[in-house]
Amino acid sequence: MNKSFLCLFLLLAFSLAACGKTTPPATTGTPAATGTPAATSSGATTKVDTQAVFKQSCVSCHGVNLEGAVGPNLQKEGSKRSKDELATIITNGKGAMPSFKGKLTDDEISSLAVWLADKK
Fold first, then answer.
1. 51: which of 14, 35, 57, 67 is 20 to 30 A away, CA to CA?
2. How many C-alpha atoms does 102 have within 13 Å on its Cβ side?
3. 3-42 per-position pLDDT tens digit
């Protein structure tokens, strides 16, 4: 195995390991997203601290301002995908993005999807 292949492999492994980690780096200026209502399966709404969910689960790959890092830029994601499409991606993962099913509650996933769908 040559050195360039090994370096590329290690970079890719490190990048993928960073996605979905549960301890966010110390950041400031996270996009405002607190208190996004999320519908529950019974139709009731609960208040989810979307900013905290984003900081915990998304910022390491998508950046403090949704500018993208290891993962893609999400600043105008709502102009590309509906909230249902976003909820499906968050739940099941896509490409290098891991699934957050079982890591986030349905309310947290719904809240993130609604919040991202508003980014146009």
1. 14
2. 4
3. 655 545 555 555 555 555 444 444 444 444 445 555 444 4
Report the C-alpha gap between 64 and 4 in whole angstroms: 31
Q: Do the bridges between strand 36-39 and strand 45-48 make them parallel or antiparallel, or are there none, so unpaired?
A: antiparallel
As a residue count, the chain comes to 120
Give this prediction's pTM. Answer: 0.65
Residue 98: which residues within 8 A CB-CB, separation 6 or more? 19, 20
